[in-house]
Amino acid sequence: MDATIVGGSGYTGGELLRILVRHPKAGNITVTSTQHAGKKVSSIHTNLRGVYDKEFKVMSEKTLDADVVFLATPHGESMNIAPKLVEKGVKVVDLSADYRFKDVKVYEQFYGKHASPGLCRQAVYGLPEINRSKIKKTQLVANPGCYPTSVILGVLPLKGMNLKIEKVTVDSFSGTSGAGSKPTEFTHHSEVDENLKVYNVGKHRHRPEMEAVLSEQLNKKVKVSFTPTLIPVIRGIQSNIHISGKSSIDMMKRYKKIYKKEPFVRITEMPYIKNVANTNFCDIGVWQDQNAGEVTVVSVIDNLVKGAAGQAVQNMNIMQRFEETEGLKNIAGHP
Amino acid sequence: MDATIVGGSGYTGGELLRILVRHPKAGNITVTSTQHAGKKVSSIHTNLRGVYDKEFKVMSEKTLDADVVFLATPHGESMNIAPKLVEKGVKVVDLSADYRFKDVKVYEQFYGKHASPGLCRQAVYGLPEINRSKIKKTQLVANPGCYPTSVILGVLPLKGMNLKIEKVTVDSFSGTSGAGSKPTEFTHHSEVDENLKVYNVGKHRHRPEMEAVLSEQLNKKVKVSFTPTLIPVIRGIQSNIHISGKSSIDMMKRYKKIYKKEPFVRITEMPYIKNVANTNFCDIGVWQDQNAGEVTVVSVIDNLVKGAAGQAVQNMNIMQRFEETEGLKNIAGHP
Amino acid sequence: MDATIVGGSGYTGGELLRILVRHPKAGNITVTSTQHAGKKVSSIHTNLRGVYDKEFKVMSEKTLDADVVFLATPHGESMNIAPKLVEKGVKVVDLSADYRFKDVKVYEQFYGKHASPGLCRQAVYGLPEINRSKIKKTQLVANPGCYPTSVILGVLPLKGMNLKIEKVTVDSFSGTSGAGSKPTEFTHHSEVDENLKVYNVGKHRHRPEMEAVLSEQLNKKVKVSFTPTLIPVIRGIQSNIHISGKSSIDMMKRYKKIYKKEPFVRITEMPYIKNVANTNFCDIGVWQDQNAGEVTVVSVIDNLVKGAAGQAVQNMNIMQRFEETEGLKNIAGHP
Amino acid sequence: MDATIVGGSGYTGGELLRILVRHPKAGNITVTSTQHAGKKVSSIHTNLRGVYDKEFKVMSEKTLDADVVFLATPHGESMNIAPKLVEKGVKVVDLSADYRFKDVKVYEQFYGKHASPGLCRQAVYGLPEINRSKIKKTQLVANPGCYPTSVILGVLPLKGMNLKIEKVTVDSFSGTSGAGSKPTEFTHHSEVDENLKVYNVGKHRHRPEMEAVLSEQLNKKVKVSFTPTLIPVIRGIQSNIHISGKSSIDMMKRYKKIYKKEPFVRITEMPYIKNVANTNFCDIGVWQDQNAGEVTVVSVIDNLVKGAAGQAVQNMNIMQRFEETEGLKNIAGHP
């Protein structure tokens, strides 16, 4: 299977490449970059020195001639590339937000004018735990956002319970790799280290994504109060999710049962990002506070793996009818 | 003014000493330690080398003969020392939880048998922002817990608003110095770095402290859903506080007005722990999410300063009729 | 191939297991621990939850009945286990220092009485880059220390040059995982973070190991001035190596040529630990300072991989006639 | 005493301001910034919110009308400002490299054309430990570089000993604040965290500064082999300094004796950056390795304090005949 990564100089593109060069089914892997075309990929992703020695290519008919194309392009660019690929019969995994919303109006409210709204309803939201069979048949997967992946997987098992699921309160904490490879004051080491930086309170663009998917999945209008914070860690998201209500059932048991067959979801009382870093796992813990009347779910992922590149490869595996865990068997380090 | 720190080998005792040696009104400062008596204080608190060259003393009548005694002793030990000091007319600031609860039953439920319950009602909860005038007159101050300090200051201005204040949802994030100086697996560098460690979900002993103080202050039974997490940072607590409800007032303005005269509370849209580290400040931001119907308050302090030693000195200043900010004028570094 | 890890509850044992469970040739893997026998391995190495679900075993005839036994035991314990295994024909990779010294006297000077001195001369120092053919034939490999691995690989290419190689000055910087999993004040997060801790200046036990191997390899009495420092990083060693002398040759070219065929040595102007973390690579840079008359080599490894468990598996691969890189193809993350 | 900080939006300017606002002798403090003129200083240095509420000013006759002017301007800019100030009788502390070299040719070789070479010989190199009496009388102090401060203070006590002082080998490790406040890939959090970045090996511009001062002080041509590395820490420099030779004297004793009267130099076996962070201290340890024939000195400072702003204020104190430690009594935190 030949694969092309469009926009491969960022962290997500680099992580995709890191996974694909060790993927047992991967054949030719091409990486494009407008900015770095002609440079060695390993001059940017220095971890790949001696492992992947090709150069960044310019995006072209030829470089896009692959079995699967991953669009690691910014929001607003994928929508200009995907339609032609779909038409040509190429399978596409888009890591931007461009095809995550069925309702184009919501997309446009948060991201700007959409260039190919028709394709939005055709695209499948690439969270295998809810859309596995649709992913198998589609040609265009909209890979979920990192925060939404952690939150949706944490909330889903509460479906059908007698809780006030209409409002979900989420405090999410993300490592700096989630902010991308471009140096900014926000992610300058001296400013981030020994600090926490709360940002975009109630205004983050992943909020409508969570609301759309949760509302659809739970058959209810769900509102999310979302507060993200940047943490002095490279990889990892921890989402603390709170829902009002009481119940007498054993929640850990419920979660374990529901995710029993999922290869990448583990239920544990210690959902630590360390255990999922560099892996495609989502670890989830769940607690009931009978005193306050609240269910608390803590969900952790590696933002670049299950939150981006790993999930993209998981989707590719499903589309290509490979073993779903192929290329994604990495284990976190201890320590 | 002569001062004695009982139990001065831990981080809180060390921080107290660090503040007191630069306090303009401080005379003789004595530090006791059962474990390290006879050793140079600066062999444990190496930051004080060349600054404070005395030794740890054994606690005794003589070492306790001071104007103010700070009890930086573990919960359960202060209660055996404080009564005699109070009787002798010595002013006491207890940094343990022993006198934080007016209702001894609540204390005993979470900490164990109380040895001097009579003194509990006499002690004043040492949060100057609510009890300044009482602190001025008391002989025994119960210095608040670190998490409660950040949460209570964040919630107080909501008093009287039409919000569902009966339930307060709190995600708090604390640096490792809050866990003390004793090496444990929980705080082993290799286990904490690049990690977040959620712990004691719904069960932390600071939860009843917050509930007791908030219920009293807000004249309402307040329940707190409390989820603490350890972060790879040395100093600092960030508490994300959520309350259901909508309002149309300008919250930042309200908070600024209410805390206008407080020397150590700053209202800001960027409540970052970096700006309060090594200082006695509490920085607070507040947001309204009209979409989800929720008020979110983010409150940050240095757990060892405003969350412990700094607040203790602030209380001492008030008791001693010194300028309240005396010795507490340190400014955080940038960066 | 069946393998047993003796003493598998520490970081080195955990890393060995992490590599072996993904090794294509690994059959049954057994892990022993005196302290944790009966507990699930994944309760200690929580990264392995859902991946390796067996329990720690007590060391016994049966658990030692494997094709290869890794001794991840402390110095002084391996020497009591290895002899019987060698006698029984089991292949042994000892990760302790017990068989690293041909001259038992040097061992005893730094580590204490040796229980099986006879085996010392038979053991092969397991640095494949110098002893590949001997490793192939031996039954007992003494896996090198972490600091020595980084230093020896950095110095070797200088052999035969006209430099004052009799004295090698080394400043090494190591992540905290190198100090093991046992909590101590030395590795307490609050003490290590935002700090550097120089220790054992001139007295570290890896110094005689470097001197012995370098003297043998360079046919000259080599003395090493060795200054180690603990850094606020989990994994990684950087060794700055200085040798007096001037030369006009292109050093980078020389190093590249010498290590051309080595699968795990890369020559680069940016020898960063980030690029070797979680991998078996040793990245090396070399500079000549004509002004001061000095050659500076900077060598980086992951102390737990090329500095311990990875190199042990590399040695196993050689002993077992597997592909040398089998199970060791992990790539560092970016970022 | 009125003071002006020219170029106050960077980290050094911010640190100067942080010290000066708490300096007992400081009157009016003015801060200029070309880029940020008109903005509140505390919008950039957010640590000063509620402490210093003035705005950045444009540099002008009026803003420069102060008792002391600190030039926290980049190399090449100070030389255009200093001459007029000196002429007007204003005291100047220049934190750039512009007046650090007596020999303008050396400056021009490393920094570019000098605009006021005449002033170079008049300026005093502001290391109080060697030039206190000259600083007292000068109008223009050239504040030393951060790396040179740590290295020179570490080497000076070896003067007159029978060691091969002609070549000094230095490995220095610096926190990211030393690289300034401007975001770059080099200091991007995701790239620095869990990493070490060796850079400019043998080519750093602080090398000729060390060589010039050491040669002058030791009356010998001294060459320095200098290898700097960026570390994942905000503040702090550790310099490991190696000199060949053997001696039988007690080095710690010698160092203690020599620095006995220095208020900011402490001799200790644990020279940790943690103990000097946020302070003007330089902590130094010294070891002799009789085996390898080498003296190793480890010297630590806070790059922004003793390595920049603190030393500048120390120089100001001397010039102004204030107590030398005035405003510089901050103690490092523990932890």
Question: Which helices and strands appear, and what pairs or packs with what?
Answer:
The structure is a homotetramer.
Chain A: E1 3-6, H1 11-20, E2 29-32, H2 41-44, E3 68-71, H3 78-88, E4 91-94, H4 104-111, H5 117-120, E5 124-125, H6 128-137, E6 140-142, H7 146-155, E7 164-174, H8 189-192, E8 197-198, H9 206-218, E9 223-230, E10 237-244, H10 251-258, E11 265-267, E12 282-289, E13 294-301, H11 305-319
Helix pairs in contact in A: 1-11, 6-11, 7-9
Written account of the structure:
The structure is a homotetramer of 335-residue chains. With 335 residues, the first copy, chain A, is α/β, with parallel strands linked by helices. Chain A folds into 2 domains: 3-144 and 306-319, Rossmann fold; 147-303, 2-Layer Sandwich (Dihydrodipicolinate Reductase, domain 2), CATH 3.30.360.10. Helices cover 29% and strands 21% of the residues of chain A. Chain A has helices at residues 11-20, 41-44, 78-88, 104-111, 117-120, 128-137, 146-155, 189-192, 206-218, 251-258, 305-319; strands spanning 3-6, 29-32, 68-71, 91-94, 124-125, 140-142, 164-174, 197-198, 223-230, 237-244, 265-267, 282-289, 294-301. In chain A, the strands form 2 sheets. A 7-stranded mixed sheet of chain A has the order 8-9-7-10-13-12-11. In chain A, β12 (282-289) and β13 form a beta hairpin. In chain A, α6 (128-137) runs parallel beside α11. The longest helix of chain A is centred in the last third of the chain and has 15 residues, at 305-319. The first copy, chain A, is globular. At the A-B interface, β7, β8, β9, β10 and β12 of A face β7, β8, β9, β10 and β12 of B.
